[in-house]
Structures are given as C-alpha cells and as structure tokens.
Amino acid sequence: MVIFIDDKPVKVVSKEKFHHLQGHEFDRILDARLDQLSEKKLQGHVIILNASSATVEKFFKIIYAAKSVDYQSVTLVVADKSAIESQIKGLYKVVKAAGGVVFNEEDKILLMHRLGKWDLPKGKCDDGEKSKATAVREVGEECNITVALGEKICTTWHTYAMGGNKILKRTKWYRMNCIDDSKMTPQIEEDIDELKWMDKRQRQQALLNSYSSIRFVFEQLSLQESIG
Q1: What φ, ψ does residue 160 adopt, rounded to 5°?
Q2: C-alpha angle 83-85-86 in degrees, rounded to nearest 5
Q3: Of 15, 37, 135, 210, which sits most exposed with the smallest number of CB within 10 A?
Q4: How many domains does the chain have?
Q5: Dihedrals φ, ψ of 53, to 5°?
Q6: Main-chain dihedrals φ then ψ at residue 172, nearest 5 degrees
Q7: Model pTM greater than 0.85?
Q8: Ordered per-residue pLDDT tens for the chain, 228 residues
Q9: For the domain that residue 101 is a member of, what is the CATH number?
Q10: Which of 33, 56, 89 is the last residue of a domain?
C-alpha cells in the first residue's frame, strides 16, 4: 500500500517483502526499536524498520502537527501489514473513486488539464456503484467520450482535507480504449480546461507538472505492459 500525503508517498511494506528493498534508495534508515521518531529525523527518503502501531501513531501526529516536514518519501516496514493499513485508514474518512487511462487508435493517452496540473479522468463512486461502472461513467462525463473498459491497472490512495475532515481517497484505475471522441469536450464545471491526446514524449513532459499519484499510475501501467 502506498498513500500519497500532501503528494508525498508513504509506503507500508511487510517484513516478508523487506529483502526486495535496497539500502541505497534511502537517505536515512531508522529502527523504531532504537530510534525516537521526530520531525528532524524525517528528511529525504526515509525507511523505518520494525515500525509498530505506536510508530505509525507517532508518525501521523508529527506530520499533522508540524508546519512542514522535509521528507520526500517514507517506507514503513511492519510485521502485520493488514493491521497497519487498517490503522491508517481509520485515521481518515475513506472515499471511493475510480478512473481511467484512455488509449486511442494511435496509442496516445488522454490527459486533462485541471487546476493548473495535468491529470487523468476520475471521480467518486455513487452509492452502491461498482468501481468499473464509476470509471466508465466519470471518463464519459469529464471528457464526453465513449470508451470500452479494459483491465485494472492499480489502486492509488491520496489524502486531502474537506470541510474540516481528513479524507483518504481510494481510486481504482482501469485501462480503456476510446470508441468515439468526436464530441470530446472538457467538463468545465469540474475545472477541466483542456483535454489532449499525448504520445510518450508529450506525456513525459506533462508528468513533470502533475501529481506523484498520477506518475505512480503510469509507472504501474509501464510495469504491467512490460510483464504482459
């Protein structure tokens, strides 16, 4: 599980997967059994070994109490991954959403420009609505195109504040093929001001002005394509 908090990735990794990690990927290695967690220690890319429920509680208190924390990413290595993930989810109101990575016949991908950033079409699930149905509906509403649903790419989690509540949005992402874009129009009421089909070079440039969670989706898509 990777959660993007203020666009910074916080990853939860089980001890069983720990051997896949490389020490050179981190600027600071902390051991929760030996080190007292503090704001000053959260700098650069940080890995926290032997992280417990108490460690997680302390970490979230620090990042929400501090005006700014300098970490670029945090990896929590835990014994019980599912329990820690449930603990983190319990700190937020969870909102479910879904979206799509849409390809056209030229193998270009559709990106949208919203609130000054390049993004992918997505939206919240209606009550009782399945994620696949949400993804197709939201792409249709935000872009006014018709698509065919493909396989799931990944799930992202990111946080934001709304009405005094801390929100954790879970978004399931699906690969899609465009069937008809003859009436393609950005949904202005959702602050979308431009839609653009982009080739690989254009996407790489656009992703410089995007969100870490969106870059993560493209990383997972590339991984999926390399395996497939």
Answers
A1: -160, 170
A2: 65
A3: 15
A4: 2
A5: -60, -40
A6: -95, 130
A7: yes
A8: 899 998 999 999 998 877 777 767 899 999 999 999 999 999 999 999 999 999 999 999 999 887 778 899 999 999 999 999 999 999 999 999 999 999 999 999 999 999 999 999 999 999 999 999 999 999 999 999 999 999 999 999 999 888 888 999 999 999 999 999 999 999 999 999 999 999 999 999 999 999 999 999 999 999 888 876
A9: 3.90.79.10
A10: 89
